[in-house]
Amino acid sequence: MSASAVLSRSWSCRLALLFFLVSPTLAVTPTWIWANPRPSGNNFVDLAYKNGLYVLVAEHGQLYTSFDLNFWERRDAHTTNALRAATFLGSRIIITGEQGVALYGDSPTNLNLVDLGTSDWLESVAASADQLVAVGDNAAIYTSLNGVNWERQSAPFTDWLRGVAYGNNLFVTVGENGRIATSSNGSDWKIRQSGTTA
Questions:
Q1: Which member of 36, 77, 145, 157 has the lowest number of beta carbons within 10 Å of its beta carbon?
Q2: Looking at residue 17, what is its pLDDT?
């Protein structure tokens, strides 16, 4: 092969490579799919279930849903804030998390982001038949009737809260320093003795 043929071939290869690198149709960023462990390697924090739908929340705004606990589909949470808790108000999905982030939606494909305007993390959320209570840092207690509009409630303590549950017509919240408190309406809280400071 002559020197001019080698030079011509070299330039042809360079032009083809240049075309590949600058072509917008060919320079596509690959989409990576997590394979193992399933559904991902995130630190999962809470799982909610209602009418055949599982909702799984995790760090960095990671959110997954499943109908069979085998196939998990990643959903758009519209945030990178940590998601800390999930529940259902009727059939509506409710999620709370880092720096007052809250999500609500009537389907996993249609979730809406609400910013409660606080730096407090909402660590847990519970629902009665017609009301939501979310709790978290600095004795934060928020209530909502629909997951869209939230109102901060005052508490007779300052302990950081870690969990809330609902049953027998009563919300129960727990937190640091052995804090336990109960409320029938989410607004008026009564301190209960836990017998521990843990």
A1: 36
A2: 47
Cα separation, 148 vs 16, in Å, equals: 54
Q: Answer positive or negative: Cα dihedral of 14, 20, 24, 27.
A: negative
Work out the mean pLDDT of the chain and round it to a whole number: 88
Query: Per DSSP, which regions of 59-179 are E strands?
Result: 63-66, 73-75, 83-89, 92-97, 101-105, 111-115, 122-127, 132-136, 140-144, 150-153, 161-167, 170-175
- C-beta of residue 21 within 8 angstroms of C-beta of residue 27: yes
pTM: 0.81
**171-191: burial string, b at 16+ Cβ within 10 Å, e else:** bbbbbeeebbbebeebeebee
Most distant pair of Cα atoms in the chain: their distance: 94
Query: pLDDT confidence of 7, banded at 50, 70, 90?
Result: very low
**How many DSSP H helices and E strands does the chain contain?**
1, 16
